[in-house]
Amino acid sequence: MKNRFKILMFLAVLAFAFTACDDDDPANVAAGFTYAPEENIQAGDTVFFTNTSVEAAGYEWSFGDSETSTEANPFHIYSEPGIYDVTLIAVNDGVSNTVTHQVNVDADLGYIINYGSYNGDKSTITAYNRYADEVINEFYTSANGVSMVANVQYAYLYEGKIYLMENNADGVSWVDASTFEQTMNTISEGIIKPRYCIGYGDYLYVSCYGGDAWADSSLGYIAKINLATSEVEKIAMPGGPEGLEIIDGKLYAALRYGEQIAEMDLSTESITYFDVAGQPIFFEKDPQNNLYVTISRNYNDYETQVGMGYFNTQTNTMDAVYPLDGIGNTYDNVIDANSDFSKLYVSYTTSTNYDTYISTGSIAVFDVATKQFESENLVDGIEGINGLQVFEDDIISYVSPSATISGTAVFYSKNGEKVAEYSTGISPILMVKSK
């Protein structure tokens, strides 16, 4: 009897052991995954997939755009917007299980900043969707439920936020780069006539006129904003600082009304000044970390040579000036390089109607290899010229026919052919990308 009992116990233990082994049976394979981020994914973003499958020995991923993977935890970049069916097949010894989730990829929009009118309409935003080949006007209003309350002088993308330099009323505000939603109040204390900005580490450096810099150039300063606390430190920099660039831990500032370029060591905040003939306004940094500078003349100065200068940051000297009369008279963003920095495109004024204050101008092309402006402009006779920008393979000319009606963004090919034209808000000046 005891032996029979022992045999039954042995069989029971053996059955339990086989039952426990069934937990690893391929028949129990179950596919599962999560992904991040889950929301606000834009074309070009990286999506990370985390495998949560059970009892799987192999994985077959399909990302819905013809791309596949057999990795356990892959990542994927979607180049186009759309709704993608992402499928994972988990396999084990001939047994498989499948799960599918939809991933929504939004278009990476470009945001055209429309300045408006200083004594009238405030700024508006025009969203540009290159995939749908369309624009959406009044985008800030639709994203926030209210209209803008200032005129945006400049916009800058930094670490997922777009910072807006605002005039009338003066301040610095920021929005989410994906949604254009503003969730924090504008910084106004310590900000007087902001012009331009650039980010470095935990700080945003803002060039400020400090008042009527054209009448009293001693008012200028750099506002150093702590992005964690929103505290503002004012660093005196007389001369009407305008365009900014950072190279090797040093901040370069174009002093429009000081006819100098300032170099500030960011670790010590000590400043050195270098004389420049004419009014330096904006920079374009080349691959060697030297600066192309747009140089205008004072309003009553008809003798100073103007054009585009080349400032050597190793020697802190202006090595050359390439004459181009009328440069710097357009509103903003008047110089931009193509993707390989073989060409620079420069917007400049050829004539002005002083009854309407509407300028007509051209887009010049500078060949970086030969260090010369090409004999023929990319485009001539742009009435209401208001700046330019290089976007992928196109050159955008921003056009403002007056300070009271809508402007346009006109896209030209590198051969000067018009490829598209979109209606914007009043006085478009530049476009900032969402990433």
How are the secondary structure elements laid out?
Blueprint: H1 2-21, E1 33-36, E2 41-42, E3 46-51, E4 58-62, E5 68-69, E6 75-77, E7 82-92, E8 95-106, E9 110-114, E10 124-129, E11 134-136, H2 139-144, E12 151-158, E13 161-167, E14 171-176, E15 194-200, E16 203-208, E17 221-226, E18 232-236, E19 241-247, E20 250-255, E21 260-265, E22 271-275, E23 279-285, E24 291-296, E25 307-312, E26 317-323, E27 335-337, E28 343-353, E29 358-367, E30 372-373, E31 379-383, E32 385-391, E33 394-399, E34 408-412, E35 418-423, E36 428-433
Parallel strand pairs: 2-8
Antiparallel strand pairs: 1-3, 3-6, 4-5, 4-7, 7-8, 9-10, 9-36, 10-11, 12-13, 13-14, 15-16, 16-17, 17-18, 19-20, 20-21, 21-22, 23-24, 24-25, 25-26, 27-28, 28-29, 29-30, 29-31, 32-33, 33-34, 34-35
Structure, described:
- The protein has 435 residues and is mainly beta.
- The chain has two helices and 36 strands.
- It has helices spanning 2-21, 139-144; strands at residues 33-36, 41-42, 46-51, 58-62, 68-69, 75-77, 82-92, 95-106, 110-114, 124-129, 134-136, 151-158, 161-167, 171-176, 194-200, 203-208, 221-226, 232-236, 241-247, 250-255, 260-265, 271-275, 279-285, 291-296, 307-312, 317-323, 335-337, 343-353, 358-367, 372-373, 379-383, 385-391, 394-399, 408-412, 418-423, 428-433.
- The strands form nine sheets. A five-stranded mixed beta sheet has the order 2-8-7-4-5, with no helix packed on it. Strands 27, 28, 29, 30 and 31 form a five-stranded antiparallel beta sheet that branches. A four-stranded antiparallel beta sheet has the order 11-10-9-36.
- Strand 21 and strand 22 (271-275) form a beta hairpin.
- The longest helix has 20 residues, at 2-21.
